[in-house]
Protein: Protein HGH1 homolog
Amino acid sequence: MPTELEELVDFIVHPNPQIRVLAAEGLIPYSISQPSIFKADNLKPVENLKTLIKDHPKLAEHVLTILINLTGDQEILARVASDDKFLDNLLGYVVLPEEPNANLHSMLLANLAKYDGFKKILEKKQPAQKGLDTDELIVNQLLDLFVKGADGTYNKNADFDHLAYLFADLSKHAEFRQHFLKKQEYDGVIPLDKIKVFTEHKSDVRRKGVASTIKNIAFEIPYHQQLIADDEIDILPYILLPIMGSEEYDEDEMMEMLTDLQLLPPDKQRDSDPNIIQTHVETLLLLTTTKEVRDYLRKVKVYPIIRETHMHVENDGVQDACERLVQVLMRDDATAEEEEQAARVTELEDGEPEVVVDTSRKAITASKDDDDDDDNEIVEV
Structure:
């Protein structure tokens, strides 16, 4: 005989729309505490949920929240992320300028990117929405959506911040990293140039996702010269500015720094999140893989910046990353081959963010090992 909860799960497909809404709303907490109730009959409840994202916006909001929470489960993640038809629906909705649940769509997409097979999104196309100024490639649409969403000019209901987490996870794949480093025909812009400007954005989610994306892209060693050249991507100011505070430097040191880093205002503040600072320092460590870049980092006085960061950020992860970078920058290059091995971060940190629900029953992201009450957490890459 079915339990009350199992009966409630069945009500999400009740003919009466009001009952569907009430059932879905009541099930939100259980999508975290008892996800097994959605696995009955070979995940039939999950299949039902997937059809309901096209329902009334209020019901769709609850359904998306449940799916966000459930996709923390690997079995459910694989079922949802491998469904091409569902994925096409999701991608079709997130780009609609009047979609009220676009942020939840973005969050679900970010979760689905945890599934390795999700990289097939790189090949997907759909007609471009008027006003998005993009091409038919889905990845480019999501990127332009992320850029336009920053100031709410595209969809007043959404900021699309969580697409930064989507990019961070996709950038674990070489195909995506290389796409982000190549000038696109439709607008003549390198995708990474579009997102680098968000390393000092007010949104923690944007900063975290973009920092992790940049770090992953730094695994493309053949592109390191392109990354640091001031007449190409010029990524260094966007990595270094977030880790700099209001410290004063010797005039000789400051005048050799990159122009964008000189004469900063006295109220300049470094990023408040030590995880983001650590990510940026680890990106610099990746960039020291070749002697040419190491020499350049020394020339533009990256060492004094790292010295001050180590001194002012009391965080074990940050200090360890700073110490490893200093060892590379200050060491003699006589044993360059050995250094290259030491400088390289050998694998991506395999973080598993999960999505939880706050008291307002809106899906939010949080790290599994986080003891803080912050709603937004980093997608560790």
Notes: The first strand starts at residue 354 and ends at 357. Residues 96 and 244 are 38 Å apart (CA to CA). Residues 1-70 form one domain. The chain has three domains: 1-70, 94-219+358-381, 223-347.
